[in-house]
Amino acid sequence: MINTFFKNTGPYEINDLLKLISIKDQSFSDEKINDIKDLSSSKKGDMTFLHSKKYGELAKSTNASFCVTSENLKSLLPANCKTIISDKILLDVAKITKKFYPNSVTDDFDVNVEKIENIQFKNKVKFGKNVLIGKNVKIGSNCLIGHNSIIETNVSIGDNCTIGSNVIIRNSLIKNNVHILDGCIIGKKGFGFFPDKKANFRYPQIGVVIIEDNVEIGCSSTIDRGSLSNTVIGKNTFLDNQIHIAHNVKIGENCIIAGQVGFAGSSVIGNNVMIGGQAGISGHLKIGNNVQIGGGSGVIKDIPDNTKVMGYPAKNLKNFLRENK
After folding, report:
1. In what order do the strands lie in the sheet with 209-211?
2. C-alpha dihedral sign at 296, 302, 308, 310
3. Residue 195: pLDDT above 80?
């Protein structure tokens, strides 16, 4: 289920939301919509969306009252979910999400931070120079924070964590024994745009970053918060330096990921996955458990469990080696 620190300004009348996205040939009896969520998190009274057959199984069991989708996909939805037919699903969902969560689009610097010396953490945390802390921040016992780091509003840090120097964290839930090395930026908005009449419409990012126990994040890595779900790093996973993880990515447990690897949005990585340096993982993919991906590979399709791949596009390792003798 999605975690969010952003204020929901709803509920809104369904027909008012249709006007917002310029749908004029559909209308419903007066009904209020409480929230907009992904297929699995939605409840009765919520709106969701379906834009790909890849999510057909999730669509069948959604509890949402309304779904923005296409004519071709509407048959995948249960009878309890009324369909709103759109030819620009993601753009329309972005506009509706912005209506519910207007503060989730921009990421201005936190004006409410204070010097750590002036607040309750001064006797609880070992810290360097020029450390700033925002509102609604929790920090566990035996934690260290390096020089020039900023823990902005809406962050929870567990016990025995180390935050390096020149780190910025916001909108994140960090568990125990986590090490975040120098220069990382965690919890900022993801990179999502939709062209609309020659303008770029930014997709709101209302989720958070969740970092589970015993994780290490290498220097100068960036982890974006989720859009309509969370970005998650599983237990005992180690990330090397200069890794980028986009919104909604889920990385499993016990993974080892080398430097300069990039993950596009909404991909799901299994447990015990190993990825070599400078590999790229495209968006909305599923990488199975115990997968090994060679350095410099470009992954553009799902990879099943217990598979070794390499190359661009990434292919079975034996095939790659045979073709590149």
Report:
1. 137-139, 155-157, 172-174, 209-211, 231-233, 250-251, 268-269, 286-287
2. negative
3. no
Query: Which of 179, 244, 247, 284 is flagged as catalytic?
Result: 247
How far is 66 from 41, CA to CA, in rounded Å? 13
Q: What is the pTM of this model?
A: 0.93
pLDDT band at 194 (very low <50, low <70, confident <90, very high): confident
Q: Is 247 a catalytic residue?
A: yes
Domains of the chain: 12-104 (3.40.1390.10), 114-323 (2.160.10.10)
**Under 8 Å between Cβ of 163 and 183:** no
> At residue 322, what are phi and psi to the nearest 5 degrees?
-65, -40
Evaluate if residue 196 carries a pLDDT over 70: no
Q: How many CB atoms lie within 10 A of CB 197?
A: 5
Q: What are phi and psi of 178, to 5 degrees?
A: -100, 140
Reported as a single tens digit per residue, the pLDDT across 248-269 is: 999 999 999 999 999 999 999 9
φ, ψ at 146 (rounded to 5°): -80, 180
